[in-house]
Amino acid sequence: MDERMPMMDGPPDAHVRIDGERYLYFGGTSYLGLHAREEPIEAGCRALRTFGLHTATTRTGFGNSEPVITLEREAAGYFETEAAVCLPSGYLTATAMLKTIASRFDVLLIDGGSHYAVTDAARMTDLPARYFPTCDPTALDRELAELSTQTRPLLLTDGLFPMGKIAPLEAYRQRLSPFVGAAMLIDDAHGFGTLGEHGWGTVEHLALADAVNQDDPPADRPALYVGGTLSKALGGYGGLIAGEAAFIDRLRRHSQIFAGASALPSGVAAASAEALRIARDEPELRKQLHRNVKHLRSGLAELGVEVDAASPAPIVTIELQAAEAMREIHDALRRQGIIVPYIPVYSGLGSAGALRVAVFATHTTEMIDRLLGELRKVREVGGWRAAIAR
């Protein structure tokens, strides 16, 4: 391991310790502040003592345990669905879903800003793939115009992108409507827990959550398949897919991931279940997150950053023309005890990278104002006037 890589010395929260120093933290994905909550940590410790590290076999054999089964029940309850399945990693969610449904389609249409997990999943199929510029329905039109009306396209995209954009799912769905058997597969890792009245993610935020993950979806409109992760806002760890019981059963039977991977570690499953209960039972966490998002976005707009003030996404990226300018801003903030990560390379970013600001429910107004005040001091560094926020 590179000795220069920073080391987090405690749980992620509004304040963190990195390399022995305490910082105000605007990085990562613990949007509801659940990873540092005492209740999930204690639940995980109890399960670890009772059940050991994990069952040391797959779930198709003797690999089920009480913590894992309880987690899936809690997940189904959180999303108010018939069933749910939890996977060893959120990175595997898109792969598991695609392996389950790929045989129903003829071509993949992939939003070019999608996460690596989505594009890797696409490569594991035999289906031809067409990429179009991110969040661009007009570009999707051009791809669709080259397809026969008998083609069954499957569109792959993130819901809430890691750099803050919300996919135009309704526009995508309208354009797919003329194609009988068309569908969208949405990886909503960052949307789960943050978007929508109940925290069900991007499809709830965009009022599309009426028919998700059905085994035999209605033929009069494109089907929706949605998965995400417990690892971000929901405060746990692992991939998460919730939906109709028949669809979840199909996924268990047809995805080699469920059959071939070891079950989630016992402590992780128990901690994740407790974090889900908190996310469900304390809606004030989401409300506080949305207040913080509004305050951050309005403050950045006052600094001259082009930002969608109405977006509920808890992520804002600041892109300058020069990578060195963004590194200097990152370093200046860190000297003042604030972490805003500079991301040099990531899916959906330009060649210079971006400063990625993430806001949590556990940030206070004073913390956000401190960040804005320090950004005000450095906004002229390296061409701040050219800043573009997503």
Describe the structure.
The protein has 13 helices and 14 strands. Helix 2 (66-79) packs parallel to helix 10 (266-281) and helix 11 (284-302) runs parallel beside helix 13. Strands 3-9-8-7-6-4-5 form a 7-stranded mixed beta sheet, sandwiched between helices. The protein has a 4-stranded antiparallel beta sheet with strand order 12-13-10-14. Strand 6, helix 6 (169-176) and strand 7 (183-187) form a beta-alpha-beta unit. The protein is globular, with a radius of gyration of 21 Å. By secondary structure, the chain is an alpha/beta fold. The protein has helices spanning 38-51, 66-79, 93-101, 116-123, 137-145, 169-176, 202-205, 245-254, 256-260, 266-281, 284-302, 323-335, 365-378; strands at residues 15-18, 21-25, 83-87, 107-111, 129-132, 153-158, 183-187, 223-229, 239-243, 315-319, 338-339, 342-343, 354-358, 388-389.
Quick overview:
The chain has helices at 38-51, 66-79, 93-101, 116-123, 137-145, 169-176, 202-205, 245-254, 256-260, 266-281, 284-302, 323-335, 365-378; strands at residues 15-18, 21-25, 83-87, 107-111, 129-132, 153-158, 183-187, 223-229, 239-243, 315-319, 338-339, 342-343, 354-358, 388-389. The protein is of the alpha/beta class and 390 residues long.
